[in-house]
Amino acid sequence: MEILAGQGGFVRATPLTWQQQVSQAVRSPLELRRRLGLAEDPPSAGESAASRDFPVFVPLPWLNRIRPGDPLDPLLLQVLAVAAETEAAPGFVPDPLAESGLQPLPGLLHKYAGRVLLIAAGACAINCRYCFRRHFPYESALTGKPQLQAALDHIAADPGISEVLLSGGDPLMLPDGRLNWLIEQLQEIPHLQRFRIHTRLPVAIPARITDGLVGIFQSSRLQSVMVLHSNHPRELDGEVQRAMLRLRKESPVVLLNQSVLLRGVNDCAETLTGLSLRLLDCGVLPYYLHQLDPVAGASHFFVPPEVGLRLVEAMREALPGYLVPRYVQEVPGEASKTPLA
Ligand SMILES: *Cc1c(COP(=O)(O)O)cnc(C)c1O
Ligand code: SF4
C-alpha cells in the first residue's frame, strides 16, 4: 500500500517523503496496539519502563505489514516494548560487544583489519527491541562536522584502512546532501577502495531509496556495498522489492542482507528459507545470520546456538549454497565475526 498525503476526495494525493514518514511513526505501545486492534489496556509498569528506556518507534509502512489482531505477529514482536525487557537475565549486559573501549575517537570503531565502522547517525527509522546498540551512548555519534572531520583525518592517516562502514543508528537517516558530502570526503582519501552502508531504512521506509541516494551510488569512484537488515520474509513487500531492484538496476552497488536469529520471529526453517528466497526476489543475497548479542533487555529473543545450527543445516538442505547465510556470533576481542559450528 502506498502511503499518501491527503484523505481521498478530489485532492491529488502526493506520496509522503521518507522524512515525513519518519515524523509520522507510531511512538507508543498503546497507540500501536490500538492501531492493530489489540487489547487497549494501559501499558503495564514494565512496558512503560521498557519504552521509556528505549522508545517504541514504528513507521507506517512497517505497521501496515503487521497482521491486525495477532499479538504474536513476527513483525509486531520486533517493535512492541514488553515488560520482559526490564527483567535481568544472567549474561545480558548493556554493552555486550565491549564497544566502548574500542573507539579511537568517539563514533569510530576500529575492530577489524582494513575496515573501520563510523557511527554516522544517532537515530533509526524503526526501533528494534533486540538491538545490541539500544544502550549505546548515541550522543557520541558523529553528528557534528568537526567530529566527522576528526574521524576523516584518522582514516586518511592510516593507509591500512581500505573500507569504511557507515553504521549507526541508521546512516540513511542522514539527508542525501549530508550523505553525499560524507561520501565525497571519503572518496578523496586515496587508499580507500570501498564504502559500505549498514541500514534497515529501505525496509522500514522504502521511499528512502530516493533519486538522490541512487545518484550517490551511481557517481562514487568507490565500490559500494549496502548491507540491508531484515529478519522475516514479510518485511520485504512489493514496495521494498521495487526500491531494491531499482537501486540494483541503476547503480553498481552490491546488495547483501544480515539478519538476527530471534525467538518467535524467525527461529523456524521455513521462515529462514522463505527469507532467503524473498531476498533473492529483491536482488539481495543473504550475508550473515547473527546469533543474538546478549544485550540487557533482549533475553526473551534468545535462541540457543544448537537450535540455530539445526536451522542453518535445514537451510543448507533446502537452498542453493549462495542463499545460505553465514551463521556468526560476535565475540569481543576476536579479529572477525566468529562462525558458529
Ligand atoms: C561487523 C563489523 C565490521 C564488519 O565485519 P565484516 O565481517 O567485514 O562484515 C566492521 N567493524 C565492526 C566494528 C563491526 O562490528
Ligand atoms: S535499525 Fe538497526 S541500529 Fe536501529 S534499532 Fe534496528 S537493529 Fe538497532
What does this structure look like?
This protein is α/β, with parallel strands linked by helices and 341 residues long. It is 31% helix and 14% strand. The chain contains 12 helices and 9 strands. The chain has helices spanning 18-23, 29-35, 45-53, 60-63, 74-77, 145-156, 176-187, 201-204, 211-219, 238-250, 269-281, 305-318, and strands at residues 108-112, 115-119, 163-167, 194-199, 223-229, 254-260, 285-290, 326-329, 338-339. It has a 9-stranded mixed sheet with strand order 1-2-3-4-5-6-7-8-9. Helix 12 links the parallel strand 7 and strand 8. Helix 11 (269-281) packs across helix 12 (305-318). The longest helix is centred in the C-terminal third of the chain and has 14 residues, at 305-318. The termini are far apart. Iron/sulfur cluster binds next to loops.
Helix content class: 25-40%
Q: Could you give the distance between the termini?
A: 41 Å
Percent in strands: 5-15%
User: What composes the largest sheet?
Assistant: 9 strands, mixed
Q: Count the strands?
A: 9
Separate helix tally: 12
> Which shape, going by the Cα principal axes?
globular
- Ligands, deduplicated: pyridoxal-5'-phosphate, iron/sulfur cluster
Class per helix and strand makeup: alpha/beta
From the alpha carbons, calculate the radius of gyration and give it in angstroms: 20 Å
Q: Mean pLDDT, rounded to whole units? A: 93
Query: What order do the SSEs take from the amino end to the carboxyl end, as H and E?
Result: HHHHHEEHEHEHHEHEHEHEE
Give the neighbour order of strands across the main sheet. 1-2-3-4-5-6-7-8-9
Provide the low-confidence segments as ranges: none
